[in-house]
Amino acid sequence: MWKGRFAKATADLVQQYGESISYDWRMYHHDIAGSIAHARAQVKAGILTEDEFSAIEQGLREIEKEIDAGEFDFSIELEDIHMNIESALTKKIGAAGAKLHTARSRNDQVATDTRLYCREEIDYIITHLTDLQGALLEQAKKHASTIIPGYTHLQRGQPVTVGHHLLAYVEMLDRDKNRLTDCRIRVNVCPLGSGALAGSTINLDREQIAQELGFDRVTTNSMDAISDRDYIAEFLFTMALVGTHLSRLSEDLILWCSSEFGFVTLSDAHTTGSSLMPQKKNPDVCELTRGKTGRLYGNLVALLTAAKGLPLTYNRDLQEDKEPLFDSIDTLKLALRVNTEMIANIQINVEACETAASDPLLLATDLADYLVKNGVPFRQAHELVGQAVAASVESGTPLDQLDLTKISEHYGADANKVFSLQTALAARTNSGAPSVKNVTAEIARWQESL
Ligand code: ARG
């Protein structure tokens, strides 16, 4: 493609080192769509005749079919998807093919392809996120009133329900979807026409190209347009954060399915055994999700690092944007799909949940609130209940069976009524709190919005 200036062919090792076709071939649909839109604008600019355009379009469609069918011969001498396709086109249709690259550089071409690719993948990921939210919602529905302890520091804190706990993840995933939707706005801008870095003396109708490709607008600075990888960084960050959320969900499930908790049983189809210990049933999907989150973080850091020292405009370092991007997309899509399937098939063990939630210490705060309602300042109430807890621990008598009236005159005969889980939960009526009424309303709201 640049033989004019060179006396020697590119060294084999350099070709091996610099090729990207082994991974960027996956953008062939986007590359072809971009080329067709570019060629249509070339007709308007008088560069191509209608016949030449038809030959280009048809040739590109044939190439697309060949790649679809796995019949296209990719060559590393042609480095990347852009040159592989252009070269095949010129072989196929001759002179018209050689005109296609007028007023275009691989720099604006690769930016266009990558943006189209990201846009499509963002939409897939949003759909997968909605599916996972749906699976969580179904389980939340079944267990809107199944009480479990809520934890801080992994120590039992206060009662919540399984439904409330699972809806917390529905919230996180919804923010992820919003972030993706927002990132998509900055992805969906057309850089084509920016050329190598300074546009072109041949003016193509950029608005028409953008419109044909479904972009919302065109970029407004040619130098920024071809060196900008912010949209990839944002996309990678958003995927990394989805990873954080999935990893936390995984950790909860890993704990919940241990014998120590026993709140959940994962289906046989989503667990693995041990080659040595016959009794084992391991939550590998959760562990893999937790582990793969590291890759998502690594990919973000790789891109940020590759971009950080680059003078304007294009530098070949930027080719290093694609493998992290593709890896995060592949990793995350599969993670979302397998987690959706796994969540849809979990079994919540209501009895184990009830046993854990029956710990009266979960209602120690409610006891302090009882004192507050009897006029005791909260700090003093906290101390009084603390003393009761200490007495319970020391004597081995559960908190709800102590004679509280002996500890302080502020306790009435009705103090022990605090220890009804149902009443305690029902009293949590503030918006966002886990009363069954609230959780049921939240479920209905999510059902509607998903
Ligand atoms: N394969 C290249 C990349 O992904 C395409 C752009 C090449 N541009 C260039 N000036 N060498 O970045």
Written description of the protein model:
The protein has 450 residues and is mainly alpha-helical. It is 60% helix and 5% strand. It has 18 helices and 6 strands. It has helices at residues 12-18, 21-24, 28-44, 50-68, 81-93, 95-99, 106-142, 162-187, 206-212, 222-227, 230-256, 284-308, 322-344, 350-357, 364-373, 378-395, 421-426, 436-449; strands at residues 147-152, 155-161, 189-190, 217-218, 264-265, 347-348. Strands 1-2 form a two-stranded antiparallel sheet. The protein has a two-stranded parallel sheet with strand order 3-4. Strand 1 (147-152) and strand 2 form a beta hairpin. Helix 8 (162-187) packs antiparallel against helix 11. The longest helix has 37 residues, at 106-142. The protein is elongated, with a radius of gyration of 30 Å. The chain starts with 11 loop residues before the first helix and ends with a helix. The mean pLDDT is 97. Bound molecules: arginine. The site of arginine has 9 residues, from helix 7.
Give a brief outline of the structure.
The chain is built from 18 helices and 6 strands. With 450 residues, the chain is mainly α. Strand 3 (189-190), helix 9 (206-212) and strand 4 form a beta-alpha-beta unit.
